[in-house]
Amino acid sequence: MAPYCSRVYHPGSPSTMRRSLASLRFRVRPSSVSIVRCHADAPPEGRAVSGWAPPGPYTGMDPEARKPEWLRQRAPQGKKCTRLRESLGELKLNTVCVEAQCPNIGECWNGGGSAGGEGDGIATAMIMLLGDICTRGCRFCAVKTSNKPSPPDALEPLKTAVAVASWGVDYVVLTSVDRNDLPDGVSGHFAQTVKALKELKPGILVECLTSDFRGDLEAVSSLAKSGLDVFAHNIETVRSLQRIVRDPRAG
Fold this sequence. Notes:
By secondary structure, the protein is an alpha/beta fold. It contains eight helices and seven strands. It has a domain at 92-245: TIM Barrel (Alpha-Beta Barrel). Helices cover 29% and strands 11% of the residues. The longest helix is centred in the first third of the chain and has 14 residues, at 14-27. The protein is elongated and about 90 Å long. The model is unreliable at 1-10, 31-40 and 113-117 (pLDDT under 50).
């Protein structure tokens, strides 16, 4: 039986209305069907029907539905995952995986396995170079900002290469905060890290997810010739929203 709308008008005398409501209550029993509330304004004064309530926000979702299993992730475990965490702490390196609290960290670090076990696929990690303080203040980003962050760690490229080589990962993504205080926009720091990685582990695949280098094409060319395997850059948003959501200094 189709659901009835609780907003129902009953013309006629009060006795007719009472009989109609009694009939409606009998036909629409909780055990057989639920009452669907119309999303409409309240009935005019004097025509209100018992049981009417203001509509709540419509979400299109069933509040009782369970989340799909693929959306549920266990806490990351496994030997590879544990080893990576310990190494990061010892060398004081940052990863987007940890800083962003990515729910897929266990799957990536364990080589395609579940969060609690290792897989036989390619284990990947994403290193965030130059610390966790950015010189820009884009509205969509939660990274800490400062106009005068600490000077770059000159040993970070070597530390990163040593750590990644010991992890046993097959693919590493290098990214960074923006550093407008550096003349080359961190391009040189990226290049040094790539070269150090390739020297210690020639077979590893290196992707560089870079900033815009303030539009400096020489900085782009320098990094592209460093020996990396993939050069990537996020434009973050569509052209019409660039000035609204990104720092004005973004290229």
